[in-house]
Amino acid sequence: MTYLVTGGAGFIGANFVKYLLKKHPDIQIVVLDDLTYAGNLGTIKEDLKDPRLTFVKGDIKDRKVVTEIFEKYPINYVVNFAAESHVDRSIENPQVFLETNILGTQNLLDVAKKYWTTGKDAHGYPTYKNGVKYLQVSTDEVYGSLGATGYFTETTPLDPRSPYSASKTGADLIVKAYGETYKMPVNITRCSNNYGPYHFPEKLIPLIIKNILEGKQLPVYGDGSNVRDWLYVEDHCKAIDAVVLQGKVGEVYNVGGHNEKKNIEIVKLTISTIKRLLEETPAYRKALKKTGDDISWINESLITYVTDRLGHDQRYAIDPTKITNELGWYPETRFEDGIVKTIRWYLENQDWVKEVTSGDYQKYYEQMYGNR
Ligand code: NAD
Ligand code: TDX
User: Fold this and answer.
1) pTM for this structure?
2) Within 13 Å and on the Cβ side, how many CA atoms surround 278?
3) DSSP per residue over 195-228, as a string?
4) 247 lines ligand 1 (CB under 6 A)
5) 7 falls in which pLDDT band (50, 70, 90)?
6) Stretch 136-151: mean pLDDT, rounded?
7) pLDDT for 290
8) Does the annotation count 141 as an active-site position?
9) Which of 96, 109, 128, 278 is most exposed, with the fewest beta carbons within 10 Å of its own?
10) 242 C-alpha to ligand 2 centroid (Å)
11) 353 vs 331: CA distance, rounded Å
12) Who lines ligand 2 at CB under 6 A?
């Protein structure tokens, strides 16, 4: 089987590529990625030595580049991770979110439809090759924001509130439209917040880790009471793999691990875990900017409450009953273990952090947070 994985040089896409290569010996993967600030070829450089993996640099909106891929490779599955993914950036510059997330998705669907169509049925609907599917990687943010109770199910009304989530909702709707109008074999997965290796340090957990190691303040938006439902990235990859191979055509699957945490809890846990790991394994201290034996400065006084995100969603929480019942999926990594694995990975992979933050990151950081 041949996969087109878009956004495969980003956080979840790269983890998915690694997962596929490990899990399925007999596959081919084409990664299409435009290598924006969030994409980094270094993330998959070891994987690119594998003859089963091919990389194409290009934009998912570009008709020509997507067409060339379908001409050259017998694509069975499209898994679309490529997106502008950061809520804060969408508040500053919504347009690129609409362009990539909506128009890019539509372009991929259109080219896939063209290459997968085999004819027409008696009602005029296109018929498709066997063994093909388009999977849209979406987010729980399309459902909006919850109060203190309740969960998002697949039938929760769509109610996006940020330019990012509105663009992801637009993409979901166009995927649904291709499923209904042209009977294209599509699925949508809607996952909660991921964490793990290769997470770009603009997002909460890797940003907090990076700032602690640099002795910087830890910016917590508002009062830190917002709740996110965290899932280890490999468990998300496992869910996508299950939906590609076994998901019922046309269905939406929510993915989440019942692991709700307030932001302030995440920040405090990250501080105490880093400190413990540095105490247990002194070799990790080379990841610190400030060298020396004294690490008593790593404590909660680093926390700084800053102006809240505009339109900040209060709480996300996924009900994953459907994917568990229909496809047997469940999260394998407990948060207590996943967060330690993640922090260890950052302590051991500072070169990767340096590489991905060598471009415009500093400028972005100063615009977002000032000179803290
Ligand atoms: P990311 O920002 O780390 O990676 C996005 C990748 O897409 C990058 O490699 C980037 O270069 C590429 N890209 C961006 N625009 C492109 C374009 N026009 N053409 C080709 N490539 C382009 O994002 P992520 O966190 O890995 O998220 C991946 C997907 O999963 C996104 O669709 C996101 O909405 C969704 N999602 C993310 C989370 C999360 O917690 N990170 C949760 C649920 C869903
Ligand atoms: O510096 C920060 N301080 C802070 O308090 C940052 C970067 C974030 N936060 C808060 C905002 C959120 O309540 O932490 C929470 C998590 O923020 P992000 O890491 O930016 O993630 P979020 O906005 O929840 O969106 C993420 O999950 C859903 C991904 O970025 C999306 O792509 C995905 O769809």
Assistant:
1) 0.98
2) 25
3) ESTT--TTSHHHHHHHHHHHT--EEEETTS--EE
4) no
5) very high
6) 98
7) 85
8) yes
9) 96
10) 26
11) 27
12) 85-87, 139, 141, 193, 203-204, 207, 219-221, 226, 228, 263, 309
Average pLDDT score over residue span 305-323: 98
Nearest to 186 by CA among 255, 122, 116, 233: 116
The answer to whether 266 and 220 have CB atoms below 8 angstroms apart is no
What are the structure tokens assigned to 57, written together?
A: 């640099």
> Which atom of ligand 2 is nearest the CA belonging to 85?
32
Is 241 designated active site? no
Residues counted in the chain:
372
SS3 of residue 55 by DSSP? strand
Q: How many CB atoms lie within 10 A of CB 169?
A: 22
Q: Which of 190, 11, 184 is nearest to 114 (CA)?
A: 184
The answer to whether residue 164 is catalytic is: yes
Q: What is the pLDDT of residue 372?
A: 62
Task: Tell me how far apart the alpha carbons of residues 185 and 162 are, in angstroms, rounded to a whole number.
Answer: 29
Q: Is residue 10 lining ligand 1, measured as CB closer than 6 Å?
A: yes
DSSP three-state, residue 341: helix
82 CA distance to ligand 1 middle (Å): 5
How many helices and strands in the chain, by DSSP H and E?
13, 14
Which two structure tokens, joined as six digits, stand for 354?
């340096």
Q: What is the pLDDT of residue 291?
A: 76
CA trace torsion 177, 180, 184, 185 (10° rounding): 110
Ligand nearest to the CA of 265: 2
Please tell me the distance between residue 313's alpha carbon and the centre of ligand 2 in angstroms.
10
Distance from residue 142's CA to the centre of ligand 1 (Å):
15
